[in-house]
Amino acid sequence: THTHTQEGETHTEAVSVMNEEESHMFNCFQRAHQHTLETYPVFLAFLICGGVFFPKTCAISGGVWVIGRIVFAMGYMTGKPGSRYYSGMIYGPALLTLLGVNVYVCAVLIFRFVSEPSVNESVGNKFNTQGCDMGGL
User: Fold this and answer.
1) Under a CB-based contact definition with an 8 Å cutoff, are residues 51 and 58 in contact?
2) Rounded alpha-carbon distances, angstroms, from residue 53 to 22, 89, 128
């Protein structure tokens, strides 16, 4: 299938008329976008699940991740491979922090489920009386 541009030429024809430098830059823009889309669902899941119990930590980590991904995309779109590597030092620790928060929350909930006989009452009371705050465990 071919999509038509405003001038009537197909998308394939429009891309084929790009010179090598334009084609390389187009590829870099497209790949930077795709790399972000690949990690976005995991990031959102960690942000939402961890944010229920640790909203400030997850909000800060989420903001740092976004800044890191912007730096990554800007570096990737230069067309020089070395320009994107250092951005991993920004978004990587942020994503690992979100992962750590979620592992901790899961471990606490599993421990409570296994160790307390009336798990429904204790978890329900914790949520109702302290507003889902698990920081004081």
Assistant:
1) yes
2) 47, 26, 13
Q: What is the pTM of this model?
A: 0.68
Instruction: Enter the tokens of residue 87.
Output: 């951005």
Q: How far is CA 128 from CA 95, 104, 121, in A?
A: 29, 21, 10
CA distance 71 to 91: 9
Q: What is the 3-state secondary structure (H, E, C) of the chain?
A: CCCECCCCCEHHHHHHCCCHHHHHHHHHHHHHHHHHHHHHHHHHHHHHHHHCCCHHHHHHHHHHHHHHHHHHHHHHCCCCHHHCHHHHHHHHHHHHHHHHHHHHHHHHHHHHHHHCCCHHHHHHHHHHHHCCCCCCC
Cβ count near 15 (within 10 Å): 11
* Alpha carbons 132 and 13: distance in angstroms, whole number: 57
Q: Kindly report, residue by residue over 9-25, the tens digit of the pLDDT.
A: 555 555 566 777 778 78
